[in-house]
């Protein structure tokens, strides 16, 4: 039985924004962004949206094909949440930046007009040294202290943020409205693999840069179509550890986590630990009147043919979690092994369809008017 067909028969209480009193940090957020914020909370009470990074830009063996995604090829629907990245907005030539912006602009607008949701990660190329976004010994500079207010590269950082703001102002749909985006900067900051990571950055500098970034975008550059997401990796085991670098309730809309390690990476599973961590920040978000999401996960190559239902779905349905979405990582165009969502013929394809058919999971086809107070499930 395809449970999507009978989804409207399920109990789904669509509460109004006033019942939630969610603490959205941008009081001048666009109407569509405010509605999305409240509707994501509604969704998280009984369902979860499925997301895939770079879903529409490319997939396993293809790239730049209109209205295509590997998820759609398998399930018939695009993911509800589509991940993009601002990685090419700095440290590149002006022409490369222009082309990257144009590609992503079309992606974001198309997703918005279809009724999908865009989330943005930022693999930020080091603004004060070579080495890209990874930390490379002997090459990379510990740059968070340099880009904070008063730092040697602060003015350069402001110019980079202006590039992001210009993009945010440009994603206008045919009806003139701006496409909302979930912006997730400095992710996995508790690890040591990025130049903004914990080993390279003091707690005070991390918080100073985060607070400046949010304030400058919304208050100085007039960006009002962002929802701001905070997402460490999985290196915490308590609420206090999760909050160690938290910049404060006035600077965060969504609490998240990136966790591959507990969900099968290198053949290692610790679903109990993974659920415990999800529960920590889901409960914290409820307490703080914020959103929560499983911002990154997945199993590279998906060799476990029942991973979707026996690992991911089973965990997501446990512990009374309230998560707006779960996002798996990208499907590389040329690599035979670097992919995190199935494609036709992949060993987990049948299980993914079970995952898709489950009433708990929502894809793009399942949501209607997510940017409106008329939001409902199809």
TrEMBL record:
Q: Record's family?
A: Belongs to the glycosyl hydrolase 26 family.
* GO terms of molecular function: mannan endo-1,4-beta-mannosidase activity
Q: What chemistry does it catalyse, as a reaction equation?
A: Random hydrolysis of (1->4)-beta-D-mannosidic linkages in mannans, galactomannans and glucomannans
One Gene Ontology BP term is: substituted mannan metabolic process
Supply the name of the protein. Mannan endo-1,4-beta-mannosidase
All copies of the GH26 domain together span 31-365
- What SUPFAM superfamilies does its record include? (Trans)glycosidases (SSF51445)
Question: Which keywords label this protein?
Answer: Carbohydrate metabolism, Glycosidase, Hydrolase, Secreted, Signal
What the entry lists under Pfam families is as follows: Glyco_hydro_26 (PF02156)
Q: What is the lineage of its organism?
A: Bacteria, Pseudomonadati, Bacteroidota, Flavobacteriia, Flavobacteriales
Q: According to the UniProt entry, what is the EC number of this protein? A: 3.2.1.78
- Catalytic residues, per the record, are 188, 296
Q: What residues form the membrane-spanning segments?
A: none
Keyword Ribosomal protein appears in the UniProt entry = no
Q: Where is the signal peptide?
A: 1-23
**Listed GO cellular component terms?**
extracellular region
Q: Which PANTHER family match?
A: GH26 DOMAIN-CONTAINING PROTEIN-RELATED, MANNAN ENDO-1,4-BETA-MANNOSIDASE E-RELATED
Q: Where in the cell is the protein located?
A: Secreted
Residues reported in the UniProt entry to bind substrate:
123, 193, 260
């Amino acid at each position: 039985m395809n449970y999507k067909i009978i989804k409207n028969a399920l109990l789904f209480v669509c509460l109004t924004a006033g019942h939630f009193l969610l603490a959205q940090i941008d009081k001048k957020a666009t109407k569509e962004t405010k509605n999305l914020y409240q509707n994501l909370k509604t969704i998280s009470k009984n369902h979860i949206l499925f997301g895939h990074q770079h879903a529409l830009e490319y997939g396993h063996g293809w790239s730049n094909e209109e209205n295509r995604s590997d998820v759609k090829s398998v399930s018939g629907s695009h993911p509800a949440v589509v991940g993009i990245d601002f990685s090419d907005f700095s440290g590149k030539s002006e022409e490369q930046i222009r082309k990257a912006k144009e590609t992503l602009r079309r992606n974001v607008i198309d997703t918005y007009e279809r009724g999908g949701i865009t989330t943005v990660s930022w693999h930020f190329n080091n603004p004060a040294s070579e080495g890209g976004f990874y930390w490379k010994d002997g090459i990379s500079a510990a740059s968070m202290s340099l880009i904070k207010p008063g730092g040697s590269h602060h003015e350069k950082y402001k110019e980079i943020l202006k590039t992001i703001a210009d993009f945010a102002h440009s994603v206008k749909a045919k009806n003139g409205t701006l496409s909302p985006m979930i912006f997730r900067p400095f992710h996995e900051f508790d690890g040591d693999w990025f130049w903004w990571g914990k080993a390279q950055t003091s707690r005070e500098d991390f918080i100073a840069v985060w607070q400046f970034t949010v304030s400058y975008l919304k208050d100085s550059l007039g960006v009002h179509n962002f929802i701001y997401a905070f997402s460490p990796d999985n290196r915490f085991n308590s609420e206090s550890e999760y909050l160690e670098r938290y910049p404060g309730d006035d600077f965060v809309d969504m609490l998240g986590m990136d966790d591959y390690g507990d969900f099968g990476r290198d053949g290692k599973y610790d679903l109990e630990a993974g659920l415990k961590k999800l529960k920590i920040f889901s409960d914290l978000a409820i307490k703080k009147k914020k959103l929560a999401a499983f911002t990154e996960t997945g199993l590279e190559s998906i060799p476990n043919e029942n991973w979707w239902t026996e690992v991911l779905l089973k965990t997501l349905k446990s512990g009374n979690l309230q998560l707006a979405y779960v996002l798996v990582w990208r499907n590389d165009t040329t690599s035979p092994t670097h992919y995190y969502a199935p494609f036709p013929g992949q060993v987990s394809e049948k299980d993914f369809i079970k995952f898709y058919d489950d009433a708990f999971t929502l894809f793009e086809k399942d949501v209607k008017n997510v940017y409106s107070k008329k939001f409902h499930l199809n």
